[in-house]
């Protein structure tokens, strides 16, 4: 299955939120409660308005989604290889439950890296919750470097999430 990336529109919001709801339910069922009933669902509308939310599609079928902002609130706290280099930050990256385990995560990362390069970024950076073992394995397999330390972030619902920082030079 070949994925394509398209910038999301406001008309995509409901189906993206439904995809995230199924993904959160799966995470809860599998015992790694990384996201919540409100996150990432409640952040997507603002991401779309800012123009940095994207869909992963096979034809018109929604297979995943992600946000790709050009900055991060906590970026100064992380020992990035080159902090001044242009970067994009991968947020809310999720593959739809029905497409997990089919190799789409790695394919999607390749497409996301190409998009970042086209947007002028020299690095793709991200954070992963320490208990999110599938994501940790994916990023390590895809050639991302884990930076030293553990970083904390407050989610929209007030929950504190401890994460590792990763980056990949493009």
UniProtKB/TrEMBL annotation:
SUPFAM superfamilies: Acyl-CoA N-acyltransferases (Nat). Its EC number is 2.3.1.-. Pfam families: Acetyltransf_1. One of its GO terms (molecular function) is acyltransferase activity, transferring groups other than amino-acyl groups. Keywords: Acyltransferase, Transferase. Signal peptide: none annotated. PROSITE patterns: GNAT. Residues 3-170 form the N-acetyltransferase domain. InterPro entries: Acyl_CoA_acyltransferase, GNAT_dom, YpeA/RimI_acetyltransf. This is GNAT family N-acetyltransferase. The lineage of its organism: Bacteria, Bacillati, Bacillota, Clostridia, Eubacteriales.
């Amino acid at each position: 299955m070949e994925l394509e990336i398209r910038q999301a529109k406001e008309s995509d919001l409901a189906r993206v939120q439904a995809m995230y709801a199924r993904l959160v339910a799966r995470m809860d069922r599998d015992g790694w409660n990384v996201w919540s009933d409100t996150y990432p669902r409640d952040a997507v509308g603002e991401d779309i308005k800012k123009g940095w939310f994207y869909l992963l599609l096979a034809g018109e079928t929604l297979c995943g989604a992600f946000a790709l902002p050009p900055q991060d609130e906590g970026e100064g706290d992380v020992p990035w290889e080159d902090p001044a280099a242009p970067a994009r930050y991968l947020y809310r990256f999720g593959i739809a439950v029905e497409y997990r385990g089919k190799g789409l995560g790695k394919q999607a990362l390749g497409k996301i890296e190409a998009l970042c390069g086209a947007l002028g970024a020299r690095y793709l950076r991200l954070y992963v919750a320490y208990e999110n073992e599938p994501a940790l394995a994916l990023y390590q397999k895809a050639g991302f470097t884990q930076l030293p330390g553990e970083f904390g972030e407050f989610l929209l619902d007030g929950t504190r999430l401890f994460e590792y920082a990763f980056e990949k030079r493009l």
